[in-house]
């Protein structure tokens, strides 16, 4: 069976950036990603979360379609909750070198436990 174009785009995903055109001030960009999914590396059951990404760019901003495809690339990945927030943070820091970035992975309740993992890089300018 031929691979669907969306499946191919997700498999070949690559985070992309573009130049920040507003260097004269600090400002904050926030994303909410309500349909994040991955797989428990122990049980193989799916995990669902809402990801919140907040960052203050320096020279670069993340391109949204590439972010969408990158996030969708986790759907079949076996990964622990703690690693999700830290991997997304590390990949965005490597790509963007932001002044500040926070990733919050807010997982749906599983086994009567609600897990939230927050990973932070840099120092936030509270005036932005």
Question: Can you put this structure into words, describing what you see?
Answer:
This protein has a 4-stranded antiparallel β-sheet with strand order 2-3-5-6, with helices on one face. It has a two-stranded antiparallel ribbon with strand order 1-4. It has one domain: 2-Layer Sandwich (GTP Cyclohydrolase I, domain 2), CATH 3.30.1130.10. It is of the alpha+beta class. The chain has helices spanning 5-11, 64-72, 81-96, and strands at residues 17-19, 29-39, 46-56, 60-62, 100-107, 116-122. Strand 5 and strand 6 (116-122) form a beta hairpin. Helix content is 25%, strand content 34%. It has 3 helices and 6 strands, in the order H-E-E-E-E-H-H-E-E. The mean pLDDT is 96.
What attributes does this structure have?
single chain; 128 residues; alpha+beta; four-stranded antiparallel sheet; 3 helices; 6 strands
The largest beta-sheet arranges its strands as 2-3-5-6
pLDDT < 50 stretches: none
- Annotated CATH architecture: 2-Layer Sandwich
By DSSP, the count of extended strands is: 6
Could you please say which CATH topology applies here? GTP Cyclohydrolase I, domain 2
- Work out the helicity level: 25-40%
CATH class: Alpha Beta
Strand and helix order: HEEEEHHEE
What's the CATH superfamily, by name?
Answer: GTP cyclohydrolase I, C-terminal domain/NADPH-dependent 7-cyano-7-deazaguanine reductase, N-terminal domain
Query: Helix count?
Result: 3
**Judging from the principal axes of the Cα atoms, what is the shape?**
flat
Strand content: 25-35%
Largest sheet: 4 strands, antiparallel
- Measure the end-to-end span: 50 Å
How confident overall, as mean pLDDT?
A: 96
């Amino acid at each position: 069976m031929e691979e669907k174009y969306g499946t191919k785009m997700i498999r070949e995903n690559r985070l992309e950036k573009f130049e920040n055109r507003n260097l004269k001030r600090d400002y904050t960009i926030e994303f909410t990603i309500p349909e994040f999914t991955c797989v428990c590396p122990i049980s193989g059951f799916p995990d669902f979360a809402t990801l919140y990404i907040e960052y203050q760019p320096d020279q670069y901003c993340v391109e949204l379609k590439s972010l969408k495809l990158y996030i969708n690339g986790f759907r079949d990945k076996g990964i622990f909750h703690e690693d999700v927030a830290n991997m997304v943070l590390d990949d965005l820091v490597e790509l963007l070198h932001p002044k500040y970035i926070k990733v919050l992975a807010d997982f749906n309740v599983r086994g009567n436990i609600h897990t939230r993992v927050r990973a932070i890089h840099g120092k936030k300018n509270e005036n932005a």
